[in-house]
Amino acid sequence: MNGYGERGSYGLGERRTLRDQASTYALLPLRIFLGVTFVYAGLDKLTDSAFLSATGNGSIGEMMRGVRDSSAIPALVDLALKSPEGFGYAIATGELLVGLGTLVGLWARLAALGGALISLSLWLTVSWQATPYYYGNDLPYLMAWLPLVLAGAPLFSADAFLAARRRRSM
After folding, report:
1. In 83-139, where do the E strands start and end?
2. Domain extent at residue 121
3. Could you report the per-residue pLDDT of 100-114, keeping only the tens digit for each?
4. What pTM, to 2 d.p., does this model score?
5. Is residue 103 part of a domain?
6. Is residue 120 part of a domain?
7. 168: buried, middle or exposed (CB in 10 Å: 19+, 13-18, 0-12)?
8. At what angle do helices 84-104 and 28-46 cross, to 10 degrees?
9. Cα(97)–Cα(19) distance, rounded to whole angstroms?
10. Which residues are within 8 A (CB) of 111 and not within 5 positions of it... i.e. 6 or more apart?
11. Cβ(85)–Cβ(54) under 8 Å?
12. Is position 13 within any domain?
C-alpha cells in the first residue's frame, strides 16, 4: 500500500525502501501536532470567559490594545478592536475547525491554509515585536503549516478515503 491507501506502482519482487516508507509517513507527526495544538488552543479560548471579554486581565481586547502600536499591521488590530469578543470567538472557532480538519484529514489543504492564515495574522499582530524574530512563536507555526498546504493529508485521512472511493466508483 502506498500513502494514498491504494496499491503502489511497485512491481512483483520490488520492495519499498525504508526511505520510501519514511517519506510516506513524514507529515503525519506534524499533522497530529498541529491538529491537537489548534484544537486545544480553540477549546482553551472558548472555555476562558476572561479571554472572550473586551476588557480585563487576560482578555482579547486588552491583548489587542497592548500589541496595537507594535504590530506590523495596526489596521488589522483596529479591525479586531471594533468587536473584540467577536474576533475572539472567530479566532477560537477557526482554530478549532482547523485543528479538527487537520486531525481528521477532511479538506486538509483548506484546513492547513486556514491554520497558516491564522498563524500569519497572529505573527503580524501579536508576536511581530519579538526580537529577534525567531522568538515569536507564530512564525514557526506558519512555516509548519506550509508543507500541509502543499501536500494535504494523503495518509489516514478522510480526504484519502474519499479519493480512493471516487477512484473505485469510476
Report:
1. none
2. 27-169
3. 999 999 999 999 999
4. 0.86
5. yes
6. yes
7. exposed
8. 150
9. 33
10. 97, 98, 100, 101, 102, 148
11. yes
12. no
- For residue 27, the model assigns a pLDDT of 94
Within a domain: residue 1?
A: no
Which of 106, 76, 112, 77 has its CA nearest to residue 94?
112
Q: Which residue from 152, 159, 89 is spatially nearest to 97, judged by alpha carbons?
A: 89
Reported as a single tens digit per residue, the pLDDT across 32-91 is: 999 999 999 999 999 999 999 999 999 999 999 999 999 999 999 999 999 999 999 999
| Domains: count for the chain | 1
Three-class secondary structure assignment of 34-91: HHHHHHHHHHHHHCCCCCCCCCCCCCHHHHHHHHHHHCCCHHHHHHHHCCHHHHHHHH
pLDDT at 9 over 50: no
Contact 64, 84 (CB under 8 A): yes
pLDDT score for 57: 94
Task: Report helix, strand or coil for 13.
Answer: coil
Which of 1, 6, 37 lies closest to 161, judged by CA?
Answer: 6
